[in-house]
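Priority: low. Protein: Rho GTPase-activating protein 26. Input follows.
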Amino acid sequence: MGLPALEFSDCYLDSPQFRERLKSHEAELDKTNKFIKELIKDGKALVQALKSLSTAKRKFADSLNDFKFQCIGDAETDDEICIAKSLQEFAAVLQNLEDERTRMIENANDVLILPLERFRKEQISAAKEAKKKYDKETEKYCGVLEKHLSLSAKKKEAHLHEADNQVDNVRQHFYEVSLEYVFKVQEVQERKMFDFVEPLLAFLQGLFTYYHHGYELAKDFNHFKTDLTISIQNTRNRFESTRSEVESLMRKMKENPHEHKSISQHLMEGYLFVLEKRSFVSTWVKYYCTYHREPKRVTMVLFDPKSGGKMGEEESFILKSCTRRKTDSIEKRFCFDVEAMDRPGVITMQALSEEDRRLWMEAMDGREPVVAQLDVIGFNVMKKFIYAVETRGIDEQGLYRIAGVNSKVQKLLSLTMDPKTCADVELDSPEWEIKTITSAIKHYLRVLPAPLMTYQYQRSFIKAAKMDNPETRVTEIHTLVHRLPEKNRQMLELLVNHLANVASHHHQNLMTIANLGVVFGPTLLRPQEETVAAIMDIKFQNIVVEILIEHHERIFQQVPNSADGPNNMPSNQSRRRSTESKAPSCSERPLTLFHTPTHSQKGMNTAVSVIVSTSTTSPSPTSPRSPSWPMFSAPSSPHPVSSASSDSSPVSVSGRKAIALYACKAEHESELSFIAGTVFLNVHASREPGWLEGTLDGRKGLIPENYVEFL
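Result:
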């Protein structure tokens, strides 16, 4: 039920029902007054809370903005850079949001508190003042009326007339006050419908503006949020792999601390005991020794931690030689003798253990070579493996990521690396799974004495990957590749071209360039020292491999402007010489022989020698006709030769064997057609200048002189 209407005509009657209706209006005004009073109090508390919240959020944003990430290593990946600046981005968003909140708080006093206080003071207070006046006039009118009605009728007429006029005046004034009060009460009741609600609406509009501003900020922040989410996921993935590597290194160092002693490429240091003669008595004195490889300088400092760490004078000399001391020649173990260029005599030193002596000996004399080398056997095996992968399983999912059985991998490598058994290995056989072949490729690269991209340039490649400009990274890596030794660059080109082919089938094998970088980065660029810093650089090793694969045509087929030297010849430059040019040099010749019988010759137990050509103009290694692949073709029947032997020749040869360095297609029936690696029998001088005569598969013919090399 709503409030009853107050009729102005009821003011004249002033009935009890009118008074009851008026009281209900007065009670509603009191209720409204109390509600507005509490609302103003709560509004002020809300504003104060918003100010406190804004202050706390600004302090939080300032803390985010002041914090700076420090990553392990001397450079950061793009993902790490994105994450590092994320705190500043968060702080900027919060500060922007709080600026809008501050504007809302400042407006809240004007649009909410002041209007409510004004309505309460100007309207409700005015109604209360009108009530007081109405009550006062009611009391006055009732008193005058009662007094007037108590007058005796015996009074004089003039006195009674005057009293009647006085009552009429008081009644009229009472009616006027009553009308004004009723008007004011109803006016306030009506005005509160908009004067009271409108400030609340304005305040809510300010809130909505604030939240809409936050919504717009969220939309603008969405792009960075997406990039940050990807960077966080990538960093988490790298962390998981890196964490396992670091834990593995920690366990290794706990189990075999001496095997993981920090070894520098240019420096060796540690404690050694030196045999000295003092007062005709030989004694062992403890020194802290440092050996610098480049100037071959040995520095010794007398130091004993037990004596309080007192350091003696420094002695130094230039190393001339270092010789392991035999056990039967001295009572002490782990000894070796050194000779100095600038001081006479032999200095006998004792290491702390056999492993420590090995490290000192390696630092001073060098290390023993390992079996695996970048020789022709290695090239042939790699090409054979790559050909099998590209023809049999290039679309297999998880190529190079799924590891083969270690025993099978070792068996395959031992068979293919042995010249006696390599020809019998048939990679088309179901015995050799693709994962076994791919694991053999990776294992071969890992057991090389030095990584394919060399220890010398390992740090340079990592430094190039850390450059900020992507184009500069490619350019620097391009230059470094052409500084590699010739064999290393050839093997790297062979491998990277293959990996590019694998990546081109990533829709089938799921091996993207990034996945291949993860697989081959630590293998091609393994550090000389296994440290935490080196593990942290694995991500940059992966980036180097990604760049090599993505830009392989530019890197290997174009010569960088900054590259110079003999190793930086254009890759598309033909190394084949014409019959009128000089013979190829040793660096331009094939590396060695790879023996495999052809199908027609297996029954005859005859081996055909095929050579791996280093010519960059040869067919693709995936082609069965490639000179780098062990194949053979020759006419099946002999043809007559019209040439005759000569008594004189610029080359004194007679009945010798020779091997073809390059392929040649006969242009005349007296000439022989052959591919690189073909072996000729009974080679001797020919009457034709620049030509030799030889026998191939029972047929005699002419051979270009500078196309072959005598065995």
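The longest helix spans residues 157-255. The chain has 17 helices and 13 strands.
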